[in-house]
Every structure is written in structure tokens, then in C-alpha cells.
Write a structure and sequence with these properties.
Blueprint (H helix, E strand, L loop, with lengths): L1 H24 L1 H14 L19 H10 L3 H12 L5 E6 L2 E6 L2 H9 L4 E3 L4 H4 L9 H15 L2 H25 L1 E3 H18 L4 H18 L10 H25 L8 H7 L10 H32 L1 H18 L6 H6 L1 H14 L5 E5 L3 E3 L2 E3 L4 E4 L1 H5 L38 H18 E5 L6 E2 L5 E2 L4 E6 L1
Parallel strand pairs: 2-8
Antiparallel strand pairs: 1-2, 3-5, 4-12, 5-8, 6-7, 9-12, 10-11
Helix pairs in contact: 3-4, 8-9, 8-18, 9-10, 9-13, 10-11, 11-13, 12-13, 13-16, 13-18, 14-18, 16-18
Bound molecules: protoporphyrin IX containing FE.
Protoporphyrin IX containing FE binds next to helix 7, helix 13 and helix 18.
Length: 484
């Protein structure tokens, strides 16, 4: 009897438990990858190397470990390079609830971003972002709306108008920062960016409307990042309510303009209302509203982060500030209190290198998501239909083989342009960010007013970094700022 019980224990300890552990540990590889090994013998490429993790969570725990706990996000990829080699630069995994392929080499990222017929864009929660918005539509509808939006926010004429429109708020904000003395840049940058977006997107200037919209967009943003459970009390449900209220405010403004032509303004809403395509067709109301909401969402957080990182790096590198002053003080003297124009900004060569370097180092979008529409083969590797593709652009920007001494903030590296396909801050292909010139312009304008009129110091120059949901110093960049 005792012998039998011992035998059972031995079988349990040396047989069943390790087997169950092994199954648990490799569950996702067995479930998702194994069927493709079988099919790979029939051609169509092999799955990239990698590990797909445990049931449900996949590799999320490792991802959180590197991004949130030890805060060394690049080690997530380097651990894969060490284990599986860097030859292909493609790795299979299971992240954010889906079997996925991580893509690292710029050439492979280019392949993905430029193959619209193979890969579908993947913005989270299109029902919240707007199903008719540029980010959600495809094919001809995408090209048509994109054309509208580019004309409104990315062409020199539009940027000339926007440059003048945003400056009163920028100068007033900097003045108020200096009056406060100590500020959290991230918080203040969000205020100034939202105020400006409200103004040049829909002509809103009054603080109560902007404050209401700001709250609504915060709720909307939280819902986009939450579990999609539409039940009263959830962040997702609240986001729908916020979206409906924000849409109602924009719709009211649109109707006011239609009823009274004298309410027409020189802003994005007006541009979208007036524009016609080649067949003379206007955008529908819902297309206009969905696009405004989605553009605020896409432009608001990203631009405020870019502004925050600019103050951070310039706070760390006073020699860069001196060089910027050499460029901007003569312009400021010539302008004698007038606003800097888009054409002035375009002549500031050193500043544009600083902007590119801030954007490279900030890595505001760590990766770009796509989904494979069908089985796709790339250099002998298979990307199965329905799997997510994560173009890991932050790896490119921090790869020493691509950018020498990548952790150095060195605007001079932009004396020569980056190698083709390696500067991926704004993505690439048909979905490359249509707000890229607008974001650069806003950062350049802030740089101008800061370096000619203010002196600032980081309160916590050695503050740690957070990387989720986006990279930022944990102190939100606290600074002491005074007028020169
Ligand atoms: C520093 C600031 C910004 C960064 C880092 C950034 C980054 C990106 C990236 C990486 C993409 C490509 C996404 C993809 O291919 O799936 C993208 C697309 C997009 N961005 Fe930006 N962006 C910034 C500012 C803005 C601004 C200011 C706006 C508008 C006001 C904007 C609007 C959009 C839109 C609408 C798309 C989707 C384009 C399409 O699907 O055709 N972004 N952005």
C-alpha cells in the first residue's frame, strides 16, 4: 500500500506536474504555432522564431516586466535577439491578447507599412475613434479623406495660418508658467496644446468650452485604452458618453455656422465643411465630426508629449539652448514683438535638427500595429492571416547600428539625413502621420519663444522614466522657469 502511494507521488512529481507545467508554459505555441509548423512543410514559409507564452496572457508578463517594472523596454527585444539571433529580426509572440509577429528591421517595417493589400491598420477601438475617420477608413475613402485633412493641416498655406493662430496662446502660456515659477511641463503642455487644437480645429476660444472638451477627451482616451466592456460604470461605457457629448458640441458649432454664414472661421472644421472632392462631393456631417474627434485624439496627446520632451532635453543640454539662441535671437529682434511665421521657422536649420532629435529620442509611438489580411510570406518567414504585426519602431531609433550612440541627444547627427526608412517616428507608407508638419511646427514655435524669452531648470534631472502608456519622466518634467 505504502509502495503504491509512493509510486503515485513519484509519478505525480516527476511525470504529471512537469508535463502540466510544460503544457502550461508552451500553451500558446502549441495552440497557435504548432499548426503552422505542419503547414510550413507545404510551402509558404516558416513562422519566425520566438515564444508565445502562457494561456490568455501570452508574453504580457515579460512585456510588463521590461516596460513597467525594470523600465528597460529595449531589453525586451535584445533578450529575443540574444535567444533567437538577429538574422531575420522577426519574432513570434502573443501580446495584447493576440498571436503576433514583432518586426524590427527597417526594411521589414517598410514592407509591412507599404503593403496595404497584405496588412490592415489597427487603431484601437474604431467605434470610439470614429468609424468614418481617416484612421479607420480604407482604400478610396481613405485617400479622399486623407487628401482633405492633408490640405487642412499639412500644407504650407495651412501651416502659415496655423502658425499665427497658435502663438497668442503659446506666449500667454509661457508668461503664466514664469509667473507660477515651478510647473509640471506635461500638465501645462497638455493645456496649451488642447487650447490650440480647439482653436484651429473648431474655432473654440472660450475656456469653459475648452475645459469641458478637455474633460470629455480625457474620458474618451481612457476608454480607448480600457477593456471593451460597454456596461454602465466601465471606462469604455464612459468613453462612449464622452464621445457623444463631444460630438454634440462640435455638431452644434457646425450647425451654427450653417445657419449664419458670418460665423464661418478659418479653421479645420470650416475647411472640412467646404471641401469638395474631384466629383464636387462634400464630406457628410458624420465624416466631418468623426474626423475632428479622431484628429484631436491623434494630435493632442502626441504633440503635448513632444513639447514636454523638448523642455526636458533642452533642460539637460544648455549648450544646445545656446546654439538655438544664436539662431533665434536675431529673428526675434527683427520681429520686434510680432509672431514668428511659418517661413521664419523653415529657415531655422539648427532648430529643425533639434526637433528631429527630440522626436527620435522621445519615441512617442513605440510601435505601429497592423493585422495580416491573409497569410503573407516575407524572406522565407510566414506571417499568418489574422495575426497582429507589431512594427517595433523604437528599436530602430535606439539601434546603434542605425543611429550612432543612440542614447546621446545629438542634434548634429541630423547634419546628414537618416538612412532611408530608419526615421519612423511618424510611420510610413499610405498612413504616414498627416499631422507630422503640424507637430513639428508647434514644437518649433515653442522653442523660439522659450529660448529668446525664458530660462528654465529641471527640478529632478535624474527622474526615472515610465514607458506605459507612453514614455515620460515620472515627475512629468517639473521645472523652475523665469523670464530672462
Ligand atoms: C509628435 C507628434 C506625433 C507623432 C509621434 C505621431 C505619430 C503617428 C504615427 C506613428 C502614425 C502612423 C500610424 C499607423 O501607421 O498606423 C500616425 C498617424 C496619424 N496621425 Fe500622427 N503623430 C503625431 C502628431 C499628430 C498630429 C498633430 C495629428 C493631427 C492633428 C496626427 C494625426 C494622425 C492621423 C489622423 C493619423 C492616421 C493617418 C492615416 O491613417 O492615414 N498626428 N501618427
Amino acid at each position: 500500500m505504502i509502495e503504491m502511494a509512493t509510486g503515485l507521488w513519484v509519478a505525480l512529481v516527476f511525470g504529471v506536474v512537469p508535463l502540466a507545467g510544460c503544457l502550461f508554459w508552451n500553451w500558446n505555441d502549441i495552440r497557435y504555432a504548432l499548426p503552422h509548423y505542419h503547414r510550413s512543410s507545404e510551402g509558404g514559409g516558416m513562422l519566425p522564431p520566438g515564444y508565445m507564452g502562457i494561456p490568455f496572457l501570452g508574453e504580457m508578463l515579460a512585456f510588463i516586466w521590461y516596460f513597467k517594472i525594470v523600465r528597460r523596454p529595449n531589453d525586451y527585444i535584445t533578450s529575443k535577439l540574444r535567444r533567437y539571433g538577429s538574422d531575420g529580426g522577426l519574432y513570434r509572440t502573443h501580446l495584447f491578447g493576440s498571436p503576433s509577429i514583432i518586426v524590427c528591421p527597417p526594411s521589414a517595417i517598410k514592407f509591412v507599412l507599404q503593403s496595404d493589400s497584405n496588412f490592415l491598420p489597427e487603431w484601437p477601438a474604431p467605434e470610439l475613434v470614429g468609424v468614418n475617420a481617416l484612421v479607420s477608413v480604407e482604400g478610396d475613402s481613405h485617400a479622399r479623406v486623407r487628401n482633405f485633412v492633408l490640405r487642412c493641416i499639412n500644407k504650407p498655406d495651412a501651416l502659415r495660418r496655423i502658425a499665427l493662430m497658435v502663438q497668442p496662446r503659446v506666449t500667454a502660456s509661457l508668461k503664466s508658467w514664469a509667473q507660477k515659477g515651478r510647473i509640471l511641463v506635461h500638465k501645462e503642455a497638455k493645456k496649451v496644446t488642447f487650447g490650440n487644437i480647439g482653436k484651429f480645429f473648431a474655432g473654440f476660444e472660450s475656456d469653459p468650452v475648452l475645459d469641458t472638451l478637455d474633460e470629455l477627451f480625457k474620458g474618451l482616451m481612457n476608454g480607448i485604452r480600457s477593456q471593451p466592456i460597454n456596461f454602465p460604470g466601465t471606462a469604455y461605457h464612459h468613453a462612449f458618453e464622452c464621445r457623444n457629448k463631444a460630438m454634440a458640441i462640435f455638431r452644434q458649432e457646425m450647425e451654427k455656422r450653417r445657419e449664419n454664414a458670418s460665423d464661418a472661421r478659418d479653421d479645420l472644421m470650416e475647411g472640412l465643411m467646404q471641401m469638395k472632392d474631384e466629383q464636387g462631393k462634400h464630406l457628410s456631417d458624420v465624416e466631418i465630426l468623426d474626423n475632428i474627434v479622431s484628429l484631436v485624439l491623434a494630435g493632442y496627446a502626441s504633440t503635448s508629449l513632444a513639447i514636454m520632451w523638448t523642455l526636458y532635453y533642452l533642460g539637460k543640454y544648455p549648450d544646445v539652448v545656446e546654439k538655438l539662441q544664436e539662431e533665434h535671437v536675431p529673428i526675434s529682434k527683427r520681429l520686434n514683438g510680432e509672431s514668428i511665421t511659418y517661413d521664419d521657422v523653415s529657415t531655422c536649420k539648427y532648430s529643425s535638427k533639434v526637433v528631429e532629435e527630440v522626436l527620435r529620442m522621445a519615441n512617442i509611438s513605440a510601435f505601429i500595429f497592423r493585422t495580416a489580411r491573409k497569410d503573407v510570406e516575407y524572406k522565407g518567414y510566414k506571417i499568418p492571416k489574422g495575426w497582429k504585426v507589431l512594427c517595433w519602431i523604437r528599436y530602430t531609433h535606439e539601434n546603434p547600428e542605425i543611429f550612432e550612440d543612440p542614447t546621446d541627444f545629438n542634434p548634429e547627427r541630423w547634419n546628414k539625413p537618416a538612412k532611408p526608412g530608419t526615421f519612423l517616428v511618424f510611420g510610413g507608407g499610405s498612413r504616414i502621420c498627416p499631422g507630422n508638419m503640424l507637430a513639428r511646427l508647434q514644437v518649433s514655435i515653442i522653442i523660439h519663444h522659450l529660448v529668446v524669452g525664458y530660462r528654465w531648470k529641471l527640478v529632478n534631472p535624474d527622474a526615472g522614466m515610465a514607458y506605459l502608456p507612453y514614455p515620460k519622466p515620472v515627475d512629468d518634467v517639473e521645472i523652475d522657469i523665469t523670464k530672462i
